[in-house]
Automatic annotation (TrEMBL):
It comes from the Bacteria. It comes from Amycolatopsis japonica. PANTHER family: HYDROLASE ALPHA/BETA FOLD FAMILY, PIMELOYL-[ACYL-CARRIER PROTEIN] METHYL ESTER ESTERASE. SUPFAM superfamilies: alpha/beta-Hydrolases. InterPro entries: AB_hydrolase_1, AB_hydrolase_fold, Carboxylesterase_BioH. Residues 26-131 form the AB hydrolase-1 domain. This is AB hydrolase-1 domain-containing protein. GO terms for molecular function: catalytic activity.
Amino acid sequence: MYQAEFDGQGGYVRWTEAPGAQPARVYLHGLGSMSSVYHAHVAARPELAGRRSLFLDLPGHGISDRPENFGYTLEDHAGAVAVALDQAGVTGAELIAHSMGGAVALVLAHLRPDLVSRLVLTEANLDPFPPPTAGSSGITAFAEDEFVDKEFTRVLERVGPAWASTMRLTDPRALYRTAAGLRKGAEPMMRTILERLGVDRVYLQGERSGELPGREQLEAAGVDVVTVPDAGHNVMFDNPDAFVAAIARRS
């Protein structure tokens, strides 16, 4: 396990990694998740093996620290990832990012383009204020202290056992502030960043999630939008073959 101080006050972001060739692949998880749980099983596949792979847990999540005074905005998370990659000696990485982690990856690519050579985004948040069914909207329906003191355990019951297994390892206050930051978005907004980036960009949308809003505009901007059959939000679990193929085909 590796770690890097990200907040100047003794808070560490941590990751595990497998050695291999460059450019490195950096895996980023979604809200209330962990990178190794969602991505290690695909990184070990023969099509992807042999590449240096980092499984990084964002602040407040998994094995990383969860300082109470940290902001947990998208920019804050991107800054923590940048610190980790700088310490790891990583440049020009392929970012494999899911959901909220995809939003963080886009902000990172905007702020530190030297760190990113390619993006593979799985149902990444591109716009502010997602629909009420989204996890971030449900969490931020409450005041912060109310969520931390009362609602966190109820949310764990509602999200189901699979998501709850990693969400229960997330600090409740960090989860709330991350959800609030995700709803607010970034400046420029994530969709705008994605359209403007000059690197190779792949966006995976699960077939069961419905059509991706603004797909035509993204494709016109050079984004390779792939609808993955027999998959919902968690494409890497629902259809790992298609997920691996999307990562491997342009590497």
